[in-house]
Specification:
Helices cover 72% and strands 0% of the residues. The protein has 155 residues and is mainly α. It is globular, with a radius of gyration of 17 Å.
């Protein structure tokens, strides 16, 4: 990241740097550090607005900050439903991501562990969504697998 900083467009340099550092720290499971970097990203450029919100939702989930995650999911859902400029082929995967992350948050915050049938149903639904960006399906699948492992191993 640092090696290529000088090659970035000046108007996007800081945002790209902070977003990339956030993403790198997310992948390394340094969630608090990633949240600090993503908080420095200016959402003026559409791609940063979209990408930063998705990453922030993932970070909130990983940090078990479910209330801020649900709030961001809600505001992001309103953003997509009211946005007339972005095509449906771009909106739909984001809306599905919001829907299933919200369901996983609700399952994670329940006091009673989710049953195997509930988790299998969710897994099948996620896998059968036709309009999904690969990052959404991969991330939700990983979360669901972790969820299954933790919840089902307790029985």
């Amino acid at each position: 990241v640092d090696d290529y900083y000088g090659h970035l467009l000046p108007e996007q340099k800081n945002d790209m740097y902070n977003y990339t550092k956030a993403l790198l720290n997310f992948e390394r499971k340094n969630f608090e550090t990633a949240l600090e970097f993503i908080g420095k990203v200016n959402h003026g450029f559409f791609v940063f607005k979209f990408e930063a919100r998705i990453l922030t939702m993932k970070l909130y989930y990983e940090l078990k900050s479910f209330e801020p995650a649900l709030s961001l999911i809600d505001s992001f859902s309103h953003f997509w439903s009211k946005n007339k400029i972005v095509s449906d082929s771009f909106k739909e995967p984001c809306m599905y991501f919001n829907k299933y992350l919200k369901l996983l948050i609700k399952k994670s915050s329940e006091t009673k562990p989710a049953g195997k049938k509930d988790l299998e149903f969710l897994k099948n639904e996620i896998q059968n969504v036709k309009h999904f960006f690969s990052w959404g399906e991969i991330y939700l699948g990983r979360v669901l697998n972790q969820f299954e492992w933790f919840k089902l191993s307790e029985k």
